[in-house]
Amino acid sequence: MSLTEKHRPSFASQIPSRLGSCLSWLFVAMLILMPAELMAQDKTNPKTEAVKPADDKHPLAELFSGYKYLSEDVRAIQDSDIANPGMAWYTLGEQLWNKPGGTQKKACADCHNEAKASMRGVAARYPVYDRLGKKMVNMEQRINQCREKFMKAEPLAAESDELVGLSIYVRGKSRGIPVKPRIEGPARESFDKGAAYFNQRRGQMNLSCANCHDQSFGKKVRATVLSQGQSNGFPVYSLEQEKPVILHRRFIMCNNLVRANPRPIGDETYVNLELYLAWRGEGLQIETPAVRY
Ligand code: HEC
Ligand code: HEC
Known about the structure:
43% of the residues lie in helices and 6% in strands. The protein is mostly helical.
């Protein structure tokens, strides 16, 4: 037997490597054939990952962004700033940020400079207790305070393109930052009231927010899958309504679903609810402007 013959690998010794390449082809084929549903659970997409609540008294074992309950095509719209129609309001907000207004002829940018730096992380703390006004304020109310107090300008109407645009712009500067509101100190009373409202049954259907969003998320209600009712993507862009939906409008829609009396936008009860939802979603990343059906 020559040396070369001896070192030529026998068929048997090639089996493991043939099997290996077979398996790797199988793996590639599986990836290609894997249903979109499974691919969507990919750990590399942080928006679908479960977040463990920081507090052990939390009503939910795991937190999920509303993004998790969207179809692949709607996720794709949210994921692309070019395709996401909510970005038109972001752009409007950016223009307004730099536009002088009011009797002071001041722009937001005159005092706050680059929003990228000055507004980064701000939305993750909202709503907050305003020491001067001695009450909780949400982002839209805060923006209007600046207009009235510092710009000597008229407050913007609740669902006007201008206020929604500024809100999306400022909140958008916290994208990717985990929600972390302050619920202690002067915010405590508001938090407790928000929690009570969330858990109280109401309306002709006698259902609480918790009945749907703590106990039934993941289940189908007519054509939609119930989410956990998280607030981290707000204001969201609604494909069905072809416009942004602010969080208080969503509260009104949910009150109407159970035939309960809704509150007006900006109402204290809704700001309390907003604080409770922020705590309940603590650790989820801000996704404003998220996209919904
Ligand atoms: C004349 C200066 C001035 C202008 C103009 C101004 N702001 Fe402010 N803004 C302030 C000051 C000062 C504070 C913080 C002090 C306070 O709490 O009142 C503040 C606070 C804020 C906050 C809260 C920040 C936080 O950390 O909680 C937001 C959001 C904000 N402004 C947005 C805006 C927007 C949007 C505009 C334009 C529509 C604007 N501001 C215009 C001076 C201004
Ligand atoms: C009858 C069931 C039901 C009740 C009760 C209900 N909701 Fe909803 N809620 C829905 C449905 C359906 C949607 C739209 C699909 C989804 O995101 O779950 C929704 C969506 C939401 C969203 C938007 C989530 C997202 O990611 O876009 C929030 C926030 C929310 N609800 C909060 C509340 C609050 C707060 C209450 C109590 C005042 C409440 N809901 C009561 C059914 C309900």
